[in-house]
Design goal:
25% helix, alpha+beta
């Protein structure tokens, strides 16, 4: 995570099209991950969401759900987005639950677009409209 912290400090400032936030614990401000809205365009009002929690000790404690809701609220209220989309590997059940808790719905399936350890996996595409955020 120290490399990530250094990268964040050296990274260009956020823009409308690319917003990146660190995810920290409230207790001690430890950086445990990143959340980003990218490829946002004012003309379409749509952005892509990515979430990365690198510290396994922080998994299953609500941090991802809180980070997703927070950045989506920012996207809808401050960026005036209409929709936020994402893709998630079909076997990543915990991430999918996080997205569903925030209100994301499955919109489609991309077949064999992700490869890990010599195996191909499908991804779900999911979307969230401004009035669907929970």
């Amino acid at each position: 995570m120290e490399r990530v912290r250094t990268w964040l400090e050296e990274r260009p400032r956020n823009t409308y099209g690319d917003v990146l936030l660190g995810v920290e614990t409230l207790a001690d401000n430890t950086l445990i991950g990143l959340v980003t809205l990218h490829d946002a365009e004012p003309e379409t009002g749509i952005a892509q969401l990515d979430v990365y929690l690198g510290e396994k000790a922080s998994w299953g404690r609500g941090y991802a759900t809180d980070a997703v809701r927070t950045i989506c609220r920012y996207g809808f209220e401050d960026m005036r987005l209409h929709k936020i989309t994402l893709t998630v590997v079909t076997e990543n059940h915990s991430a999918r639950r996080v997205y569903e808790k925030a209100g994301f719905v499955e919109e489609g399936r991309l077949r064999q677009v992700f490869r890990r350890d010599g195996r191909w996996y499908d991804k779900f595409t999911m979307g969230l409209l401004a009035d669907e955020l929970r």
